[in-house]
Amino acid sequence: MSHVLAVNQLDVTLDNQSILNNISFSLSRGEILGLVGPSGCGKTTLLNTIAGFIAQQSGEIIIDGTSIDATNLLAPEKRHVGMIFQDYALFPHLTVRQNIAFGLKSLTKEQRIIRVDDLLALLKLEDYSERFPHQLSGGQQQRVAIARAIAPQPKLLLLDEPFSNIDARLRQALMLELRQLLKSLDMTAIFVTHNKDEVFTFADKMAVMSAGTILQFGSPSMLCQQPNSYQVADFLQLGSWLPCKVVEGQLITCISQFEISLPLERSQSSALLVKPQHLSIEANTNSKLCVSNISVTEQGFHYLLTSENDQDDLAIHQLSVYSEQVFTLGDKVAVEIKPHDYLIFATP
Ligand SMILES: Nc1ncnc2c1ncn2[C@@H]1O[C@H](COP(=O)(O)OP(=O)(O)OP(=O)(O)O)[C@@H](O)[C@H]1O
Questions:
Q1: Is the CB of residue 47 below 6 angstroms from any atom belonging to ligand 1?
Q2: Which of 13, 36, 154, 285 is found 20 to 30 A from 129 (Cα to Cα)?
Q3: Dihedral sign of CA atoms 183, 79, 37, 345 in order
Q4: Mean pLDDT of all residues in the chain?
Q5: Angle between helical axes of 138-150 and 168-184 (0-180°, round to 10)
Q6: Does 39 contact ligand 1 (Cβ within 6 A)?
């Protein structure tokens, strides 16, 4: 399949500091990528480098067959990339119609009117065409920003935290609507978010970044099933961590000990990822784990369990379990781990 975007071994340095380091990935036509990672890991820098606002030191960006490298930096306006900024950056003194028409200077007046009318209809903005940005709601402003960005028919659309200014109640509906729109246009897109849940609703692929590198790239479901590191599993909040050690083929946690064939170095400090569905609990006054927090959820009672002795190197600080049974704070409970594909990672 041909790639609309390929990024190969991209390095970016700003103020003598390495900000992006050996970034490589590619996207096929129509694919939507969600970029996630902790604050400061380089998500916005990556978008800005692809858009051409920041120059790379080395590596290549190929946009629909056009190669851009450090010796051949194409100006942003020649990259055919649309960008939607977090605050939408609409021109305050221009109406909705004028904002959308802004990037269409190469068209004749008649062509421009037709294209803007089409976009007003597509984004359900017909009734607002003569309003100014300050006369619109956040969701309407976002629609104008989308219409303006896709008006010149870019090959790639970049969105920096597109949903962060949208009321939480409207966010899900807007995400689904925008996803449908991008799919109907076969538009390739990358969006940045702090919210992993947005990725599951909006994206086909996700990249988890940390300190200027991509830790893992793939479909959201693949990353959930096979996270490649402690950092990825932890960022995706896939479950709780049980400190563990492997001694002579035995996996030892403070709850249990069982046979395992995993090539772990004994010296490494490691943790077993356990999802709530892997655990069952029952009252046991001899247990060294007790209930430290209780909340009521749709899936039943949600308990956090903590080791009584937090000095032990296998002590559990927070184990998340759901149960129909009623316990109270401080109750001692025994935990059983159901057999599953054990995911064990070296802890940082
Ligand atoms: N123009 C610049 N000059 C020097 N350093 C910069 C510049 N722009 C960004 N940085 C640094 O690059 C790093 C990555 O910043 P970036 O904004 O890309 O992160 P981010 O993942 O988008 O963060 P956030 O999620 O908080 O928006 C940060 O340490 C930031 O301080």
A1: no
A2: 154
A3: positive
A4: 89
A5: 20
A6: yes
Structure tokens at 53: 């606002």
State the fold for domain 3-232.
Answer: Rossmann fold (3.40.50)
**Model confidence over 221-254: pLDDT tens digits?**
999 989 999 999 999 988 899 888 877 777 788 8
CA–centroid distance, 46 to ligand 1, in Å, is: 9
Q: How far apart are CA 91 and CA 99, in angstroms?
A: 6
| Residue-range domain boundaries for the chain | 3-232, 239-346
Structure tokens at 120: 């007003």
Predicted ipTM > 0.90: yes
Ligand 1 atom nearest the C-alpha of 37 is: 21
Mutate to test the pocket of ligand 1, among 11, 13, 14 (most ligand atoms within 8 A of CB): 14
Q: Are strands 81-84 and 32-36 parallel, antiparallel or unpaired?
A: unpaired
Give phi and psi for 46, each to the nearest 5.
Answer: -65, -45
42 pocket-lining for ligand 1 (C-beta < 6 Å): yes
The first and second tokens of residue 167, run together, are 């009321």
Phi first, then psi, for residue 262 (nearest 5°) are: -130, 135
Nearest-angstrom CA–CA distance, 263 and 251: 11
Ligand 1 nearest atom to the CA of residue 212, by list position: 14
Please report, rounded to a whole number, the percentage of residues in the chain having pLDDT higher than 70.
Answer: 96
